[in-house]
Amino acid sequence: MNTTGWIVLIVVVVIVIIAIVVIASTVGRRRKQEADRQRAGELRQEAAEHDLAAREREAKAARAAADAKQAEVEAERLRREADERERSAAEVRAESEDKLRKADDVDPDVRTDRHGNRVDSADGAEAAPAGTAATAAPADRAYEAPRVDDGTAHEAPRIDGGRHTEPPR
Prior knowledge:
Elements: H1 3-106
């Protein structure tokens, strides 16, 4: 072969090598792009799943907040109901104490002070009717029921002789 033949052969081989390199790089780019597309699709799918999970958590949080608000409303209703029952109990207690004072005032065997409270007899024993176990406070500690309208309860003296019994449940 002559020199011109060798030059043409070398040029053809170089062109074929360049073509192979171009084709290989193009195929490689396309494969990379396809892999990137697939990875982007997976990331979008994960993002959609995370978004759904986030919305579910937000809904649960909203339900929990609504439940808490409902519990607050119920607690306020129960507080008001308890206050009303407490006021009612205080009224009944006051009526009962008034009736006991009136009974003591009417009973000739019971000594009372000017407020209607029982006082001790001269020998230190209470002047109570026969068959009762009630005891009264000393005259210097006579109890006068508080007369308040502010809705607060005050502890009343025990009229059962200091014996503590639980109410039946």
